[in-house]
Design a protein that fits this description.
Chain lengths: 622, 249
């Protein structure tokens, strides 16, 4: 057995998307030796896929905007299930986090007076999203990447070593967290390139691993999104909340088949694009739910006037929160009014001049031209729902990102609570920055205050190594690719956008069988850059997290946000007060109800009582 | 629409390797990366390839298809004849790790050598004011997805290992230009471009611009303007005299 590579740091950040990089910057600026571990190359994380923008109430486009309005929009979008403290911190701190990016070198699109331009998006009352065309995620990731390089340059000047205080381990997968008693002590994993194992000793670990979309067949998520952080947290003894809430983005590409699921940014609608069915009808007017009737226009004339006069008109219904639009598209297709390839039409070509479309939506123009032979300045796009985001994740303390396990923190998509039952577009990038920074500071404070450093028990290494190598030990077992496809099909068909008890029970039976078959996964070849082996290890996480999703979804007998039950179609105020909490013992997932902490009085007072009556029980209102 | 396509894929590692022949199903609308994935799932489960977003946004799946540097995820099968044999090889300029995966650490080393954005000392966060027309020049360069195809294709380092030390490559010379054109950057980057990053090696053959999947005008908008700024400073007789008199050089 080759000697184990070992490293020691103060803080480990797992994941190098927006949340991970912002957390690492914060931990390093607190003077801690910090490592970032990521599955892809540095700068390739899934954050690059974010298109529309970063929501922050800077008030550049409309002076009436402020954190209270942003807070209200976020709570409405999440159907009041949000952790209100997270929503409050997020709305208050997002502008600072965006301005800070400019000091790192970011170049956002500008207003006429030279400030950061802000665009409209679903569920946001005012134009609020700071953006760079439709490639805002790339700007965010590159800016944070370059800030990290800049900190490394500072360390080089001072200490003669770029990596003295901040080091990135790229193409590295963490398979297990290590604990000393009940505290975090480090992490174990392997270099994807060589397959060699590494042990990291560190008293604090920040999970920033993103989502779980690769468990679904039609998804906008990349291969990295296998729920690693969710599963690592569960196995380390932390709890997950809100796992039943999965966001299906209303507009993914539907054709050609090989690109099915790839995201079409909400900015298309924010900038004037409309949804039509095969009869040419703007169908969203038929799908405005009761709770949003006073905010959304019920006729085309008013909706179109809104783009130029927001004070005097209600918003177009194409800009309803994503869960509403996704369900509407689903219903239109089911009713036989879909497009040739099973979606609906999203048209911006008749709404804006070609030149303007190319300027505002360059990536979309490029993407459709190159992948589907569609010129979006002349033709409508065909779009349909795609699995995009998981609202659920690690249950954390809002102020510090700390989980229930001492030394374990989480930020970004892998954490739960902030978005309630449905996330608004643009609130993800701001979430990454606000809570990435908070988790970095939280971990720094934890390390500063801790007594003796934890020690990784030797048997953790022995066990983790054995588990990782198991797929090489057999011959003639299950193929990981086949198992993965079956998992994706099951989750897509049975725990997808519209759910029924019988189907979810069937999903759980299938998951149980898949779990057993996963015990005999076999991998060919050796450990060096072996994608089959990588998938076999990721599958373990996907199966565990999928079980959480299916079990929680079966228990929640109402429809709310990213959880729609055909057999329980209404939203129930009693359910708003309950969180479903997932934990794991051995490999058995259990889900329990837990009461929500009541919303603080002064935050409740930001809403009209008539609006609160739609969401809260009489008891809560008294 | 479905047919059996013929592929030759380079397989091997730093010790050596060879092209391997495959016959594999191709369906309507697919891109080369779909075919590579089908090979993994059905015939070669340990075939190494780097990829991520599959939408041309992350720049991970760079390789050479029939000798031309391209993103695997943005190369549609429909541009080839059904009878054609398609050859997929790793990027040639970087050391092989395995199969289609190369060691691109050269690029990360070069990225570190470019001094970072130097913000103005007198502006607090939130006080930055810039005009759209002024940020657009640098914004074009910030569209870069770091696929490193320009670095791979640039003849200064392709097959010229000895130049790698002194030459940052188009991607990072463009980064220097991006910072130089940033309306609020306070550093002077013109001399650095020539002396530290090897701008002089570039003889504007525009190969980098041709392979850029983001269609960035690397040569015309970044490299040539930087060369002009260098020339203005180095060869302007008045500046030359000033430098001599005040010993600025």
């Amino acid at each position: 057995m080759p000697e184990l590579e070992r490293h020691s740091f103060d803080v480990l950040v797992i994941g190098a998307g927006g949340a991970g990089l912002r957390a690492a910057i914060e931990a390093r600026e607190h003077g801690l030796r910090t490592a970032v571990l990521c599955k892809s190359l540095f700068g390739k994380a899934h954050t690059v896929m974010a298109e529309g923008g970063i929501a922050a109430a800077m008030g550049n486009a409309n002076e009436s905007d402020n954190w209270q309005v942003h807070f209200r929009d976020t709570m409405r979008g999440g159907k009041f299930l949000n952790n209100w403290r997270m929503a409050e911190l997020h709305a208050q701190e997002a502008p600072q986090r965006v301005w800070e990016l400019e000091t790192y070198g970011a170049l956002f699109d500008r207003t006429k007076d030279g400030r950061i331009s802000q665009r409209n998006f679903g569920g946001h009352e005012y134009p609020r999203l700071a953006h760079v065309g439709d490639r805002t995620g790339l700007e965010l990731i590159r800016t944070l990447q370059q800030k990290i390089v800049s900190l490394q340059q500072d360390d080089f000047k001072e200490l003669g070593d770029y990596e003295a205080r901040l080091r990135v381990f790229q193409e590295f997968t963490v398979t297990e967290l290590a604990k000393d008693g009940d505290r975090i002590a480090g992490a174990f994993g392997y270099w994807r390139e060589s397959g060699r194992f590494v042990l990291f000793e560190a008293p604090a670990v920040i999970l920033a691993t993103g989502g779980i979309g690769k468990s679904f067949k039609v998804t906008s998520n990349s291969w990295e999104y296998t729920g690693d952080g969710h599963a690592l947290a569960l196995r380390a003894g932390a709890s997950l909340i809100n796992m039943e809430f999965i966001q299906f983005h209303p507009t993914g590409m539907v054709w050609p088949p090989s690109v099915k699921g790839i995201l079409v940014t909400e900015s298309v609608r924010g900038d004037g694009g409309v949804l039509r069915n095969s009869d040419g009808k703007r169908f969203m007017f038929d799908y405005i739910p009761e709770v949003f009737k006073d905010k959304y226009a019920d006729n085309e004339e008013e909706a179109d006037r809104w783009y130029t006069d927001q004070a005097g008109n209600r918003r177009p219904p194409e800009l309803l929160p994503r869960d509403e639009v996704a369900r509407a598209i689903n219903s239109e297709v089911k009713a036989g009014r879909g497009s040739p390839h099973g979606g609906v039409f999203l048209d911006v070509s008749t709404r804006l001049p070609a030149e303007e479309i190319r300027r505002r939506l360059p990536s979309m123009h490029h993407q459709f031209k190159e992948l589907a032979d569609v010129d979006i300045t002349a033709q409508p796009m065909e779009v349909g729902p795609t699995c995009h985001y998981v609202m659920g994740g690690v249950e954390v303390d809002p102020d510090t990102g700390s989980s229930s396990v001492p030394g374990l923190f989480a930020a970004g998509e892998v954490s739960g609570g902030m978005h309630g039952s449905n996330r608004l577009g643009g609130n993800s990038l701001s979430d990454l920055l606000v809570f990435g920074r908070r988790a970095g500071a939280g971990a720094a404070e934890y390390v500063r205050a801790m007594g003796e450093r934890p020690v990784v028990p030797e048997d953790t290494v022995t066990e983790a190594r054995a588990t990782a190598l198991r797929p090489f030990q057999r011959e003639g077992g299950e193929n990981p690719y086949t198992l993965h496809m079956e998992l994706q099909q099951a989750m897509n068909d049975l725990v997808g956008i519209i759910r029924r008890a019988g189907e979810m029970e069937e999903a759980l039976r299938r998951l149980e069988k898949l779990k057993q078959r996963a015990g005999s996964l076999t991998v060919e070849g050796h450990q060096q850059f072996n994608p089959g082996w990588h998938l076999a290890l990721d599958l373990r996480n996907m199966l565990l997290v999928s079980e959480c999703v299916a079990k929680a979804a079966l228990l929640r007998t109402e429809s709310r946000g990213g959880h729609t039950r055909d057999d329980h179609p209404s939203m129930e105020a009693e359910w708003r007060r309950k969180l479903l909490v997932c934990t794991v013992a051995g490999d058995v997932v259990s889900v329990e109800e837990k009461p929500q902490i009541p919303i603080r009085r002064d935050l409740l007072d930001l809403f009209d009582r008539t609006e609160l009556e739609k969401y809260l029980t009489a008891e809560e209102l008294s | 629409m479905t047919y059996q396509g013929r592929f030759r894929v380079w397989r091997g590692d730093d010790a050596g390797g060879a092209l391997e022949d495959f016959t594999v199903e191709v369906n309507e609308g697919e891109v080369v990366l779909d075919i590579i994935h089908r090979l993994q799932a059905t015939q070669a489960p340990d075939l190494a390839v780097r990829w991520n977003c599959k939408a041309g946004k992350c720049g991970s799946c760079s390789a050479e298809i029939n000798g031309r540097p391209r993103l695997l995820c943005m190369t549609r099968m429909s541009i080839f004849e059904e009878s054609e044999t398609i050859t997929v090889t790793p990027m040639r300029t970087f050391p092989i790790i395995r199969d289609l995966v190369t060691d691109v650490s050269f690029n990360y080393t070069k990225a570190r050598e470019v001094p970072s954005f130097a913000p103005p000392a007198d502006l607090a966060p939130g006080e930055y004011r810039m005009q759209q027309v002024d940020v657009e020049r640098s914004q074009e360069f910030r569209k870069c997805i770091e696929c490193f195809l320009c670095q791979n294709t640039c003849h200064v380092v392709r097959d010229h290992e000895e130049n790698k030390e002194a030459f940052a490559g188009p991607r990072f010379l463009m980064r220097v230009a991006e910072l130089e054109m940033h309306p609020l950057d306070t550093a002077d980057r013109v001399d650095q471009a020539q002396d530290e990053h090897g701008l002089g090696y570039c003889n504007i053959t525009k190969c980098c611009s041709e392979v850029c999947p983001e269609h960035i005008h690397i040569t015309d908008n970044a490299l040539i303007p930087m060369k002009e700024r260098v020339a203005d400073r180095k060869y302007d007789p008045i500046v030359w005299l000033g430098n001599k008199l005040f010993k600025r050089s």
